[in-house]
Amino acid sequence: MKKKVLFMVINMNVGGTEKALLNMIDVMPEEQYDITILMLEPYGGFLGSIPDGVKVEYVNGYSQMKDILNNPPKIVVMNFLKQWKLLQAFYYLILFLITSISKERSLLFASLLRHYPINQNEYDVAVAYAGPMDFISYFIVKKIKAKKKYQWIHFDISKIGFNVKFASQFFVKFDKVFAVSEEGKKEIVNLVPTVKNNTEVFTNITIPEKIINLAKEGNGFQDNFNGLRILTVGRLSKEKGQDLIIPVLARLKHEGFNIRWYCIGEGNGRKEYEAMIKEYDVENDFILLGSHSNPYPFMQQCDLYVQPSRHEGYCLTMAEAKCFNIPIVSTKFAGVSEHIAHEKTGLIVECNSTSIYQAVKVLLQESRLKDELRFNLKSLNIASRLKKIDL
């Protein structure tokens, strides 16, 4: 009999969490698992990448809940008043006051889901995969029947708006809490010590053979540039640090380096970055390529990969870049040392433009170091594959 497993996520946007989920599903034999993905929102660039045998379900009415969950309380109440829904306005005004004083955000979830039926399917395992997302954790605990329930944490919780009180109340209701790095686990145990005994590390899965094959399916760069290409992949947002590398490119171009920097990803930082690109006069050489569900042709063709993140959970894009033995420069974030060793398989620097500039310049000037990093990465990848088959 197949084991029934449910994964709950926000949507299937092109992002690290969603890609990690697809990779996990990819290594779960179809003859052994009956998999369901439960989404809050029915969209995302990875929707078409969900395997045919996987069931896809949605939380009905979430679009109405989302406004109440994400908008400031004043806006929510005013919107009800504008619609002459006076009782709802008064109800949520009182509810927001109570949650603000008590810091019990779960009261808001309970209110929104008070009429939502409990899912009648019983799963062997139900996973709050898009973590930490309090609403999803609450939903799995209260509205899903399962023999075992797991909470997944994909981010560095010390760097985001992590609700310690909610986690202390609800994480203990899960059979396991999984972090995607050792440093991530330490942060969880530090902030929520009650889950120490049921917290484990489960690093995001990468499938090198699949990644390398996908690199052959796309065209990659189309601009006929004859210099060195630098690549960064990630959502266009402050935590991913693209604002740190625009000045780096400007400085290197001013010093005469024949380079072009490409960013794959989309996000709410685009307008800010477009303004910065114009301000630093690098419009021809700092290229925002937008979102690509298959970034691997670009990874295969670039000369250098840079990860300028302010914080990460596991950083799947760096794990993927390693599959192509690319010299890597990365800022120092939680879990980075689980990807690369400084001056052996990459360069790890402080999270500022000056440090990134110095590291990139070293690799542009010292081909011997670049070759050494490539060789060490190649050796590491071969060793990891042999380990999988017990050699």
List keywords for this structure.
disordered C terminus, 7-stranded parallel sheet, 41% helix, Rossmann fold, single chain, alpha/beta, 2 domains, 391 residues
Structural write-up:
This protein is α/β, with parallel strands linked by helices and 391 residues long. It has two domains: 3-60 and 116-201, 3-Layer(aba) Sandwich (Rossmann fold), CATH 3.40.50; 209-388, Rossmann fold. It is 41% helix and 18% strand. It is built from 15 helices and 13 strands. The strands form two sheets. The chain has a seven-stranded parallel sheet, sandwiched between helices. The chain has a six-stranded parallel sheet with strand order 10-9-8-11-12-13, with helices on both faces. Helix 11 (270-279) links the parallel strand 9 (259-264) and strand 10. Helix 3 (73-82) packs antiparallel against helix 4 and helix 10 (242-254) runs parallel beside helix 11. The chain is globular and about 65 Å long. The two termini are 33 Å apart. 38% of the residues are buried. Residues 385-391 have low confidence and may be disordered.
List the helices and strands and how they pair.
Blueprint: E1 3-9, H1 16-26, E2 33-39, E3 55-58, H2 62-70, H3 73-82, H4 86-102, H5 106-112, E4 122-128, H6 134-143, E5 145-153, H7 164-170, E6 176-179, H8 182-191, E7 199-201, H9 208-214, E8 228-233, H10 242-254, E9 259-264, H11 270-279, E10 286-290, H12 296-301, E11 304-307, H13 316-322, E12 328-331, E13 347-349, H14 353-365, H15 367-388
Parallel strand pairs: 1-2, 1-4, 2-3, 4-5, 5-6, 6-7, 8-9, 8-11, 9-10, 11-12, 12-13
